Amino acid sequence: MFKGKVVRAIMLISTWAATAVSAQNTESLSFPKDQFTIETKIVKTSNGEKKVTYKSYMHIPYVANPVDKDYQSMNVSVPTQVDGIRIETSNAPILFVIGVGGYMSVNNAKGGGFGPGGPGGAGPGGMRPNGPPPGAGGPPMNGGAPGGRTAGSAGPIGGGPGGNSKTSGKADLALAAGYVVVTPGCRGRDNVTSDGKYYGKAPAAIVDLKAAVRYIRHNKGVLPGNTDRIVSTGVSAGGAMSALLGASGNSPLYDTYLKEIGAADADDNIFATAAFCPITDLEHADGAYEWMYGAFPVGTSGLVDQQISKELRALYGQYQASLNLKGKENFGTITADNYAQYLLKSALIPSANKYLKNLTEEKRRQYLENNKWITWKNGAVNFSFADFVAHVGRMKSMPAFDNFDLTSAETIEFGNKTVNARHFTDYSLQHTAGNKTVKVDEEVTLAVHLLNAMYFIGQKNEGCVKYWWLRQGTSDAHTSQTVMANLAACLENNQKEVDSALYWDAGHGADQDPEEFITWMGKISGFSKKTDAVKK
Predict the structure, then answer these.
(1) 282-293 and 481-493 are packed helices; what angle lies between their axes, rounded to 10 degrees?
(2) Domain extent for 60
(3) CATH number, residue 239
(4) Is 494 contained in some domain?
(5) How far apart are CA 101 and CA 424, in angstroms?
(6) If residue 77 lies in a helix (H) or strand (E), which one and from where to where?
(7) pTM value?
(8) Helices (DSSP H) in 177-261: which residue ranges?
């Protein structure tokens, strides 16, 4: 299903790491079970507010040889009481909140209490305090988060917001349900030392997240919660990392990286994965974007170069055919030619139907009046794919990910210790080099594979999780709607259990059913608050 030379590229691993601190600085891999503070939190649920008391473990290093402990550490939140009722967490699932946005770093040392990444979480982004200022060897400030916005405006991260102001986000709801919440820091594309050396380029983030999982498993019976029931969640680039963590469990391709930072000698597969608007499958994302948005203008800037768009669409057609994915409900093989029909049937029209049926008659009338491209007849909607895409609108220039001037978040993610940004597709490299025969380096090819969940699913990695929760907004133009649809179809074709849905008219980072997610976590993990969490 997937092609690429990986074996020889693994020999290049030893050149990858940049050390910001001495490798001799080792840390204990034992969980400090007695080093916590007691915190309280009011959590809003559909059944009213819940007062949660929890143990807060802050800034715990999860590797023995950290490159930078501020990033390679985690916070752990363990509920002890909910509304005054004592909680037992020894068998509780563990929500693993990935706070990555725009492939930026997550500085765990900046967390305090409940940060934007969930309980105790620190948001993404930010250079180490001793790093150079913008323009002095650091990452360029125009390296935006996926979708063309600056990294600092990449939308919700970590647990994400609730569906509305009536409920809290997933991390808070997890605590109220009696679950343990872990929020790890990790390195990212923006990490740079005071002398201008980068130490968080791909695949550093996923290596760190795997090391954090290994730390949790290594401390089974000491760290609260069921270490065999780890469920990851992330948004945008964090959604891509969550999907990757779920797909690549125990892959030996990461072993050398993990050994170098002193990761625990334990498994790194998890139990289930939630991915919200995952910015993944990057080596094929440019073609997928042109397939969906190529005929539509970028705001008021007009159409992109149609010849280049056509070439990228052709490459995408070849890729889609190579996947040989079968659609739901006996749809048959999904191709570039019939993908619009498949998206309409399997996801878009069901999402619109659900949205409109839940409106009052007057609000539905107003919505249809404002969206005349949608027809409503006998309690069901209908519309064309072209009208839908025009409604959403294109937001990115071209190429959307491996852009020619090397300013995108993704090209910066694939830099190395001394080079801030590199092309990661042959097409963009050949275009900028003016040479149709040049290919990206094997080191880059390996990094691209190590950041793509689709690669490991295609390779039928044995550590790939069984349970998946996938969500995206229909008005999210950060990537093509085919990206998550391909991920879902690839998983379903490999007999995984996938709960996938689109939020109608919702944008990037939307999370409209956090309580349903918490219920799903309890169901698949076999955890019942009534029987497992409450102390008698």
Answers:
(1) 120
(2) 7-19+43-283+445-533
(3) 3.40.50.1820
(4) yes
(5) 20
(6) strand 73-82
(7) 0.88
(8) 204-218, 237-247, 255-260
